Amino acid sequence: METNINEIEVNGVSYVKKGTANAVNSDGLPYVIIRTTGAGVHAGYLKAQQGEQVELVNSRRLWYWAGAKTLSELSQFGPQKPKDCKFTIEIPKITINGVHEIIPTSANAEKAIKDIKEWK
To answer: Does domain 7-115 have CATH number 2.60.40.3930?
Structure first.
């Protein structure tokens, strides 16, 4: 189930990682936001992708965000109202089916998402 982490294909569209503006961890895994059919929105490092199934590591479910109108904005700027966000704890690994979007994040957005206090 491993994938080439420099290029991702979703529904026939290839997304290629650009330079250093995108967030990656020390293993070169990109930090992404994904939107799913029934499991909501998640953020984490994309370890693998096969069709509409992805495996994320160090992942958080983004239940509610404030200060970004779309996931596109969230992926580039992070949430602008961090106290109003509801992001779950970070889990070490998750496999999710029914993925419709995989959006690479900027390094600033990754930091902003990770800095949100855990919603419990």
So the answer is: no
